[in-house]
Amino acid sequence: MNKTNNHPNRTNGADDTDATRTPVTVLGLGAMGRALAGAFLRAGHPTTVWNRTPGRADELVELGAVRAGSAAEAVAASPLVIVCVLDYAASHAILEPVGAQLSGRVLVNLTSDTPERSRAAAAWAAGHGIDYLDGSIMVPTPVIGQPAATILYSGSREAFETYGPTLKALGGQAPYLGADHGMAAVHDLALLGFFYSAMAGLVHAFALAGAEGIKAKEFTPFTETIVGILPAIAADMAEDLDRGVFSGDQDNIVMEAAGIAHIIEAAEHRGINTEVLTAVKGLADRTIAAGHGGAGFVSVMAEMHKPTAEA
Fold it and tell me: Do residues 144 and 162 touch, judged by C-beta distance below 8 A?
């Protein structure tokens, strides 16, 4: 028989004496949802779980979680409800039918989507009397629950302050980004844009080196040099952006464009795809044509603010 934890609806927040015993519900048991529920269980939280496919809860139930028979049953079990699914269309499909049951509770949506959808979800929650936090998970599932795990939060300050100790079970790095519910998603997408662009560059590097017979494991240690200089470069770029002065003293975009051209030439000679680098070269070339050849690479920002040209 499916059961729920019969904990009262604490509209004023977590257990005042021991945050580690705050009851929590997790809706959505994909790989990340299971990792979240597991982290709560390891931290000692009475944890109720629900998923459209009940079998995904089996391992968590063995660890002590309670399997709810419905989303409404799951929501009723805890004052703090976490939802983590594919996108906001999926989360809304789960939450809309249980809006009334969520009233007076804190809802934390850790689903990844756009800032606009985060703000729309916040408006929906406000209309149902739900204290709402939006969150973005910045680490893969194996890191969840560790001190180094980073999860960003924005939205209700009261909810964050009340349940911050409980949410720390998911990751030790849990910055609050302000009352605008879209801020966590903005940071998430901006950082992931950087990440995926870097991943494409890394794969291209493996391809180019591999075309000369260099094994990936032999090449990988050299990538540490590039990765290691990025924090200092980011800090310098940020200072230039905030000051509005794009210094090219150490290098300039004409030099950068020449280097990119060499990479493209070598890649094409070896039959390797150059779409990503060609796009980067295009940004540099247009910036130079606009008269900014003596500035640093960050000067391509003006081109970044222009809509993508249609093919």
Answer: no
Residue 311: how many CA atoms within 13 Å on its side-chain side? 1
As a whole-number percent, the residues of the chain with pLDDT over 90 amount to 88
Q: Which single residue is written with the structure tokens 């209309």?
A: 127
List, in sequence order, every beta strand (DSSP E) within 177-286: none
Token couple for 48: 């109720």
Return d(Cα 224, Cα 243) in angstroms, integer: 30
DSSP code for 173: B
Hey, how many other C-beta atoms are within 10 angstroms of the C-beta on 155?
Answer: 30
Q: Residue 57 has which token pair?
A: 């809860």
pLDDT at 40: 98
Give one DSSP letter per residue of 182-215, joined into a string: THHHHHHHHHHHHHHHHHHHHHHHHHHHHTTT--
Q: Which CA distances in Å does 73 have to 2, 127, 264?
A: 9, 21, 57
91 vs 89: CA distance, rounded Å: 6
Close Cβ partners of 203 (under 8 Å, ≥ 6 residues apart): none
CA distances to 109, 164, 245, 311 from 156, in Å: 12, 11, 36, 42
> Residues with Cβ < 8 Å from 31, sequence gap 6 or more?
141
How far is the C-alpha of 90 from the C-alpha of 53, rounded, in Å? 14
Contact 193, 107 (CB under 8 A): no
C-beta separation of 174 from 163 below 8 A: no
Q: What angle do CA 304, 306, 307 make, to 5 degrees?
A: 110
Say which residues have a Cβ less than 8 Å from residue 90's Cβ, sequence separation at least 6: 28, 111
pLDDT digits (tens, 9 = 90+) for 134-162: 999 999 999 999 999 999 999 999 999 99
The residue with greater pLDDT, 192 or 18, is 192
Question: Would you tell me how many other CB atoms lie within 10 Å of the CB of residue 96?
Answer: 10
